[in-house]
Design goal:
Number of helices: 17
Strand content: 15-25%
Strand order of the largest sheet: 7-8-6-9-10-11-12-13-14
Shape: globular
Structural class: alpha/beta
Helix content: 25-40%
Radius of gyration: 23 Å
Largest sheet: 9 strands, mixed
């Protein structure tokens, strides 16, 4: 029997899997289709010195032949040539998450969804750390394979649709599905395939002990009926015996029909209904892991949102600044825009346009935003669409800094950066865009 393992992609997750596979006694081969990034050149030498075989600029047959299985990185599409070649050769392909799961006894809390999964993953980890060693990992930037050397109580793992698709045995203790909206359609070759990819970690032989689903999402509410091998908890409803919900100005948890008040909305560190849903997910996971109500409340109050996701930057002269640079499409910006009611909001919008429909975003802007400041390549199309939908309080600026200065001069209650666009016209990444926003705001 071959002891050869093939790792696809010289990425953070691929390197973590390769290093653990070597430690576990496998003969490890890493195949990378592109030229190596400068940041990985020293690491390549280190890995080679340890005995790991590495090729770049293509996938040769000699590297592929005889592999017991292949571990793929999240950045490699299922329709890529290397994936097709491996399937033709009947070489099993698994995700790095699946590989980590097979090599540890630590229970996983898996969190997936189109939006909100990063915040929810970080929040669940933060709450559980009141009692447990429970680091976050997965699609949030920490490969689980890098954590299976040590003993942890839980691994709180953000799971993308592609990571979920490439699992076979991955059976979380708790699986959370925050919401489902169209995304990654080209990647999965259809909306139904995208749904099925995420659904793998909720049903059939991979059914978790507990399934946590969004009651306000019609498709997930219906799907909950298929999770009959798990104990199901729904959030954002009070109509079930096992659920978490908002009643009055507080969030409540109910198990077997018994309600418990957890926290008042005014004490939550996150704003907006979508974030209240993330908090409800966190509460359910914490209760299922035995965290006390008082500890849950304290940890929610002390939690800080991940960078660039409706991140509160500062308050200054009666203005609160929020960095939502991660909103790279209109759907993500709508979530942020809808978080503000009955306050004067100046919205900084624009960047490299994805040419998606803007009607719903314009509707939300009409309801919640007083002033829009446009920057970047999308300025003209966004202006045209806003005016077509009856919104005319538009200011055009040429830089992030001038947009911030103009917004401050208007003396609104809130200045919100939620661009609804990619960043590459003016910035290296959405992170770079968010950092520029924060640094300039904090310099004022």
């Amino acid at each position: 029997m071959s002891n050869k393992v093939l790792v696809l992609g010289l990425s953070k997750s691929g390197i973590a899997a390769a290093e653990y596979a070597l430690k576990a006694g496998y003969d490890v081969y890493i195949t990378e289709g592109k030229a190596p990034k400068d940041e990985y050149k020293v690491k390549i030498e280190e890995l080679s010195d340890k005995g790991i075989h590495i090729e770049t600029n293509g996938h040769s047959d000699s590297f592929i032949e005889g592999s017991k299985f292949a571990i793929t990185s999240p950045g490699i599409p299922p329709k890529s040539e290397i994936i097709k070649k491996l399937k033709m050769k009947n070489i099993p392909i698994i995700s790095e998450v699946e590989f980590a799961y097979r090599n540890t006894k630590t229970p996983f809390i898996a969190i997936t969804g189109t939006n909100g999964k990063t915040t929810t993953t970080a929040l669940v980890s933060h709450i559980l750390k009141a009692e447990y060693k429970a680091p976050f990992c997965g699609n949030i930037g920490v490969p689980p394979s890098s954590l299976i050397y040590e003993d942890y109580d839980y691994l709180v793992c953000e799971i993308s649709s592609y990571q979920a698709q490439m699992t076979e045995e991955f059976k979380p203790y708790i699986s959370v599905w925050t919401n489902f909206t169209p995304d990654h359609i080209d990647w999965h070759e259809g909306l139904e395939n995208y749904f099925k990819a995420k659904a793998k970690i909720f049903a059939g032989k991979q059914s978790p002990k507990y399934a946590v689903l969004n009651a306000k999402d019609p498709k997930l509410f219906e799907f909950a009926k298929e999770c009959n091998k798990s104990k199901v908890f729904l959030f954002d409803t009070d109509k079930m015996d096992n659920c978490c919900y908002i009643s009055g100005d507080s969030i409540w948890f109910k198990s077997n029909g018994t309600p418990e008040k957890i926290i008042d909305l005014k004490d939550c560190s996150l704003v907006g209904h979508h974030n209240y849903q993330n908090i409800m997910c966190g509460i359910i996971c914490a209760k299922l892991c035995g965290i006390s109500n008082e500890q849950i409340k304290d940890r929610i109050m002390s939690f800080k949102a991940p960078e660039h996701r409706l991140e509160k930057v500062r308050e200054m002269d009666g203005i609160t600044f929020y960095n939502d640079s991660k909103a790279t499409n209109p759907e993500a910006s709508i979530v942020a825009i809808d978080s503000f009611n009955n306050v004067d909001v100046a919205l900084i919008l624009g960047g490299r346009d994805k040419n998606t429909d803007l009607t719903e975003m314009c509707d939300s802007i009409n309801k919640h935003i007083n002033t829009v400041l446009l920057i970047g390549e999308a300025t003209q199309r966004f202006e045209d669409n806003l005016k077509k939908n009856g919104f005319n309080n538009i200011i055009k600026e040429t830089t992030m800094e001038s947009a911030i200065d103009k917004a401050i001069s208007l003396k609104p209650d809130v200045v919100l950066l939620s661009p609804a666009c990619a960043s590459f016209d003016m910035f290296k990444s959405y992170e770079h865009r968010g950092e520029v926003f924060k640094e300039y705001v904090l310099s004022k």
